[in-house]
Design brief:
Blueprint: E1 3-5, E2 11-13, H1 17-29, H2 33-45, H3 49-52, H4 57-60, E3 65-69, E4 76-80, H5 83-98, H6 119-132, H7 143-156, H8 161-171, H9 176-182, H10 185-196
Antiparallel strand pairs: 1-2, 3-4
Helix pairs in contact: 1-2, 2-5, 2-7, 8-9
Amino acid sequence: MKTKRNSAGQETEGLDWNTAIGLTLRLRQDDLVKDYLMLTLGIYTGLRISDLLNLKWEQLIDKDEVTIREKKTGKLRRITVNPKVKEALGYGRDQLQAKEKYRPDKYILESKYGSPPTVSYVNKRLKLLFTRYNVKARKASSHTLRKTFALRLWSADQRSEKSLIYLSELFGHSSVSITRRYIGLQNEVFSDMYLSL
């Protein structure tokens, strides 16, 4: 239902919102700070992984809004910082300060080498986490976070055409039909057609 083909022709699936939130809570409970931050930032901002990985604490901590130049498009994107993101950042900062591993100029998801982790690492890490916590997601990857965000926005607006238009603009899609395919609506419509026979 919630699928998109990636460059290898595999389908990437977004998570059900309750599943995503449940996973973030379990990661926090298990003190997996970076994983908790990665998932929370991903599902609440909808940023591409290349932009998400390059976020620094000073860009977001104690801020209500952030403007990011998207790496892929070069466009500026203004994001209102959700209270759940603020809460996650405060928790993450406190945990890292306790371990003397926090500085405002560091990457939020910094690797042990002082740079952002690679997309490949994130994909492997997500697959491991989904397996460990028994989260079902077909072809899980970093793109799962962005698709979860899109599905949540669409569902929160009663699955309206208006929300598809907004998502299309937000993601820079050239048409709403691309956005429909992006969040897997084409597959859902086809499935419903078969079931209606």
